[in-house]
Amino acid sequence: MSYITLNTQKLTHNYNFLNHLFNRHEIEWAVVAKLLCGNETFLKNLLSVVDKDICDSRLSNLKKIKELSPETKTVYIKPPAKRLAASIVKYADVSFNSQLETIKALSEEAFKQQKIHRIVIMIEMGELREGIMADSLIDFYAEVIKLPNIEVSGIGTNLKCLNGILPDRGKLNTLLKYRRDAERHFQKKIPYISAGSSVTIPLLKDGNVPEGINHFRIGESLFFGTDVFNDTFINGMHRDVFKLTAEVIEVIEKPMIPTGKVGKNLTGDSPEYNQKDKDKTSLRAIVDLGVLDIDIKQVYPIDEDFEVIGASSDMMILNIIDEKKLVKVGDEIDFGVSYLAVLRAMNSDYVDKKVVNTQKIKKIHEKSEN
């Protein structure tokens, strides 16, 4: 059996850490929960800890959040498919948009549902993912504000996710200029600039986020304590909110080099071996976890006496470095996981999901003290 656990106490610690940071800078922030893939157990746990808007890029996940907590404000953080307009209005209080035709469809549905649907207009800032070109903002905005039941609550941008373009003070100042230009032209205030994500946190800590950038969307740093900008970790945050555990199903001493003609394996690779290991053996353990469940490059044994050798669809092979280590069938081995590893595991029906350390956790609604 394999399972992934979410540690509530460590999640709460990370949430308080970020809440304190953002409150000191008078910045609002929302939690990006798409990593949880709509899992009800983990979503309930998250909602018991945080008191923030919840962002996701999957409509079914937002639907689940609304079922669990109707009062929670939900944000759809990618340009919606036009055909989903009715459901977007129903389950998302806010959506990120870059296509006028889609916003018109949202307007029609919001009118039918007697709702005001709020949108964030996404602007291209060099990442070449979603977003209108900046020189079209005034014309675009002029068309949007004509639409009934649509309210522009902000402008935003996305960086780092596709081409790895990093935020900097210059880009953020340019985004502030775009807001000022639009507000001056239309004599209408735009409340938020949603320009911050996990990658922008180090800039905030270093004083390089200009005043006026007032909304962040945070997922990875909350769950992993990562400094995405520098590809390291933030001091004071937990890295191991998640842990992956797999059961040992075989322990046998075997040759270190396979025998026979080598072809391509399951993943299309032709493994290479050090011929110095010919005629040598090592103690190996197999656990019930495979590439169907995880990317083996994104996990690592917490115990350094183990190393990952490879995996097939549903088994992962470990070398036991210290052969004096007592390992037997039925034992469990814990693995540290990256963002992508958790994402894969959360999408696997073969990996159980468990919550630990919940007994002393209380829902947090207070702002952290400055």
User: What does the average pLDDT come to?
Assistant: 94
Structural class: alpha/beta
Helix percent reads: 25-40%
What is the C-alpha radius of gyration, as a whole number of Å? Answer: 24 Å
Contiguous helical run count: 10
CATH superfamily of the largest domain: Alanine racemase
Question: Count the strands?
Answer: 18
pLDDT < 50 runs, ≥5 residues: 361-370
The biggest beta sheet reads:
8 strands, mixed
Number of domains: 2
Order of helices and strands: EHEHEHEHEHEHEHEHEHEEEEEEEEHE
Query: Which of globular, elongated, flat, extended, rod-shaped describes the shape?
Result: elongated
How widely separated are the two ends? 45 Å
Q: Tell me the fraction of residues in β-strands, as a range.
A: 25-35%
CATH architectural label of the largest domain: Alpha-Beta Barrel
CATH topology annotation of the largest domain: TIM Barrel
Please tag this protein with its features.
370 residues, alpha/beta, TIM Barrel, Lyase, Ornithine Decarboxylase, Chain A, domain 1, 2 domains, eight-stranded mixed beta sheet, 10 helices, 27% helix, disordered C terminus
Structural notes for this entry:
This protein is of the alpha/beta class. The protein has 2 domains: 8-233, Alanine racemase (TIM Barrel, Alpha-Beta Barrel); 242-337, Lyase, Ornithine Decarboxylase, Chain A, domain 1 (Beta Barrel). It has 10 helices and 18 strands. The chain has helices spanning 8-24, 40-49, 59-68, 85-91, 100-112, 137-144, 169-186, 201-205, 220-224, 339-346; strands at residues 2-7, 28-32, 54-56, 74-76, 94-97, 117-122, 150-156, 192-196, 215-218, 226-227, 232-233, 242-255, 281-287, 299-301, 306-311, 316-320, 332-337, 352-356. Helix 4 crosses helix 5 (100-112).
